[in-house]
Amino acid sequence: LRADWFRIGVCTVGIVGCLMSYGVLQERVMTRPYGEEGELEFFTYTLFLVLLNRLMTCSVAAGTLAIEGQWAQFRPVAPLWTYAAVSVSNVVATTCQYEALKYVSFPVQTLAKCAKMVPVMVWGTFIMAKRYTSRDYLIATLVAVGCTLFILTGEIKSSAAANMAMSASLSSLFGVLLMCGYLGFDGFTSTFQEKLFKGHQMSMQNQIMYVTLCSAGFSLFGLVTSGQLLAGLRFIGRHPDCLGNMLLLSLSTTIGQFFISFTIKNYGALIFATIMTTRQFLSILLSCVLFLHPLSAGQWVGTIIVFATLYYRAFAKSKGKNDPPAEPKDVEGGKEPLLPASNPAGDGQPAAQGQA
Q: What is the pTM of this model?
């Protein structure tokens, strides 16, 4: 019991620390101009950032396998198409996430990620044949209501959108649609990752290495065919500080990816979608302070609804034995705990990133 508390605590600290750094650097790269006064320009080559990110993650995963002498894990453990499926979903989700920052503010994007449990539950039902309790659906609904209230009661436009030739309402709508795309594809990514771990004897490094290698290939193909590869290289040649920011961003998300994969492998996709509450709330506060995003009273109410709901969920799950367990059931009728009984109260949702 104490070991579970400790491990989940380590996962929480690792993911929160890495992804808060990642969030700040992401907002810096995608929404703030580079250069001197009068010669300012924005970084617009999203796939270039994805490529750099995935190459670093793949290199670290391969290096870790080599250091540990796990040479057998350099071979694909699952069919290559399964790695590619996770990769495509991850690249699309990440691209939607980066692009959304051009249209909506970082606090909007961050709070929207709290609704990740909704697509995770949907994909879990279809892919893993899981079943969830009415309380799980109620919590997901309250989170969605809080996010909707946040969007409807205040300014959500990104500062970068001021430089675009489109109306504020159209910009905000496009940003919200991109975030919906992110949530859908990211929910599929983490759920299919969980399915791979359960269906094959693969290490975290094996999955990370092959998924990010495929992602790097897809990103490079997109850059070459769109003619953005040379343009991106010229941009960082003019602004080397942008390259420094992107390298730090990639390092943060690389380390975070190992924490994320460990969490998914050992505790499942839904606890991963829950462990991010603290990170999301702190990220919103930090962004409001660093990048001056004032929130309206209605937006604060929406924020409180979301995080109060998620903290209640974490606290209720941590009671474990005293509450009816929320357990999905597989098609054979065997039960798999939705959350471990020792789940700490400081959980939340994301990113995955994957989020990254």
A: 0.65
